[in-house]
Amino acid sequence: MLAATLAVVLSPLAEPPVANRVGLAPEENFAPLNTDHSFGAPVDDVNIFTGLRQIDSWTAGGSAIVHRNFVRLTSERQGQKGWLMNRPVFRLPEWSLMMELRASGSNPYLFGDGLAIWLTDRSEVIEGPVFGREDYWRGLGIFFDTFQNIDHQHHHKHPYIYAMVNDGKMHYVPDAEVPQDAAQQALPGAKANSGCSFDFRYHEEREDVSVLNHTRVHVTYRDKTLKLRLQQTSPQLHDQWTDCFEVKDVVLPAEGYFAITSATGDLVDNHDIVQFSVRSLEGVDDPNGDYDRWEHSVRLAHEAKSSDYELRPQEVMQRDYARVVRAQASALRSLTADVEQLKQQLEFRMAAMQVATEVTRENMDDKSDEVANIASAFERTERAASALEEHSSRHLLDITKKLEAVSGSSGWRLPFFFLFLLITALGGIGYNRYRKIMKSHLL
Length: 443
Prior knowledge:
- The protein has helices spanning 2-10, 18-22, 287-304, 322-407, 413-442, and strands at residues 39-40, 58-62, 65-66, 71-74, 81-86, 95-105, 114-120, 138-145, 160-167, 171-172, 185-186, 195-197, 201-203, 215-222, 225-232, 242-247, 257-263, 270-280.
- By secondary structure, the chain is α+β, with helices and mostly antiparallel strands.
- It folds into 2 domains: 30-284, Jelly Rolls; 378-442.
- The strands form 3 sheets. Strands 1, 3, 4, 6, 13, 14, 15, 16 and 18 form a 9-stranded mixed sheet that branches.
- A hairpin with a 2-residue loop joins strand 14 and strand 15.
- The longest helix has 86 residues, at 322-407.
């Protein structure tokens, strides 16, 4: 009887399915992720030759730096161009794209230039003037423009987001709406509903700045229609989507390559990419609903990572301990989330400190070179002055001796004559030395 009772008490109960335990859907009813064209944190792959982090199927170039939790395309430094290029060819006729970006900086008013998503027929990125990439591209460009160009007419606020398709023959004019040769230029807002104003940029003194607050961009393409909507990930604005544009009759290359580029000019900003996810829309009736189900599944999967800390009631020998164990598991989950956020915050700050250190070191090196040049010039001047003084003294002594020798045998006029010659000689010697010194300084 006792053995039977112990067997009943110690025998493990059948575990409930994962869906019932953490709230996951029993089956995935959304389009799967295309891993060849996607990436996200954490990035743990390290190049064995360079020692730098790298993303599978993607190439980083220019000023882009791959960190564990984000990719920084450009930092707060002038004249930077950074890019990520997806190496596998993209052939999906209908697709959904989600990108999380973070544009931030220390200045609340002056910032630029922006970043762009590309789907073109080029398998490489050539640096150029269009958000860090070459002009006259063939394919799609989606631009996130933070710089208000006062040299061109426009009727919208910045930051401004817009889409453009180029056949490789049109020249890009930044933020121009009504140029004289519009037929020969790829223009922002050239088609109806092809752009919108959206404040996706944070400055670091705002109260809501956090490494967890990003801008989520959702792009869909099907039936030759390109749509884009945006969402902030901050708790106050979560789940609030803003429709940006819907462009019809958009023809894209049958085979293309994704890329993300960014650039800074005289004005600067941090441009970070946190996540880039591509999925097929073939067989999907509602792209937005499909995305919501996928995003919900991702969130639940993230929450499930900490579920191992939680002990189920049947694993607790006494029922009175269940409440305590659950409370401890909740505390562990909260602590784990705080630690992960702290790690991301430190990585974000360290990246900014690294750039500031490099800029300070470059400035110090420039100042050191200037001080060395000044010291060298001063030393040359001192040597020239000493040589001039020595040469003048020696010539003066020789002339004085000659004057004394002559004055003993000549009349009273001869001393004055030699005095005049002495003054003339000294003037000529000084003038010649002055010309040589000036010539050496010019060289």
